[in-house]
Amino acid sequence: MNDSKLMHAGTPGACAVRPGLFRSASWLRAWDQVWPCDVPERPIYSGHSSNLIQYPINLAKLLRFQSAAPKAISTPCLEGFASEYLCFNSPADFSLFLQEAESGQWDQLYLRGLLDKDFEVDLLKQYCLTRGYLLMRREDMPAYGINTANATFDDYCAGLGKSTRDRVLGGRRRLQKRGELHRRNLWPDIDHFLKILNQFHEVRWGKPCIVGESEQFIRLFLTHLQQEGGCVDLSALMLDDKCVSVMLDVELDGWVYNLQSGFSALDFGRVSLGMVHFGMQIEQSFSLSRCHYYDFMAGDGKSANYKASIANNTLSMGDYYVVRSIGLKLAYQLNDCLKRNKNITRYPE
């Protein structure tokens, strides 16, 4: 399979667009509406800043510390709707955040989903070095996607492995023999879309996918996104008049994000409904000149890492922890030593 490299912003010759959906105005606005900072019964925000969430962490059930994180990301105290990339608008924007966070009463600053090669990590290393803080990187999280710029869908398919290409294209042909196969964008009927998505997830995973506050959030976010110039695709794959797969795709600044998907548990023989649907969504992105990247996001499938097989690009990201409490530094070092945890990088190394 071809390994086309997507250059990062901040490096010579890089594309100016980064995956900024999760720091976009529409994302932050919806977050503030569902999880506002002025709710007394939910004192999760730092007293000095509405941009910083603060929550306790316990180690070995004996030691208690305070952790902080930027709002609008998933944390142990507030799951929210899963976010992936923590991409600030500019180096100045991130530096301002660190400056504001510095005055908070925290032992640890948690930054989930930083791209390893972008400016945030470089600035974070310098920030910790000048203050004597420990910087740790945990949770290697490759995010898979497809660079759709300067290529065609046929070029992309030619670079796939034989078995993967058969699942994407051959599966489509086999499904077309069973009836009329087409896609339908259900937007703005989000009620109907979520009902189908949750039903598929109930069968496959044993629980619905988007409910409660997460449902409130996604409804508001999608509305705001379209109002602010983004595109919403509540894609339903139809076989005759029956929906067999759904995908929640959104586009902002030419970057398409696959936020969620689900498909029927019915047996269609040698057909992977998810791969067929992905293939059609990817083909659509190639056909739109404004689109340059289709993002599967991080995470694996239930039984196999299907994303790796159909991607032609990988973005490396991880969870970063700024530790300024001496007690917490020692606790982490002891804990990691006992567990022999090798999936941790410390800076300076």
From TrEMBL:
<dbReference type="InterPro" id="IPR016181">
    <property type="entry name" value="Acyl_CoA_acyltransferase"/>
</dbReference>
<feature type="domain" description="BioF2-like acetyltransferase">
    <location>
        <begin position="163"/>
        <end position="307"/>
    </location>
</feature>
<dbReference type="InterPro" id="IPR038740">
    <property type="entry name" value="BioF2-like_GNAT_dom"/>
</dbReference>
<protein>
    <recommendedName>
        <fullName>BioF2-like acetyltransferase domain-containing protein</fullName>
    </recommendedName>
</protein>
<dbReference type="Pfam" id="PF13480">
    <property type="entry name" value="Acetyltransf_6"/>
</dbReference>
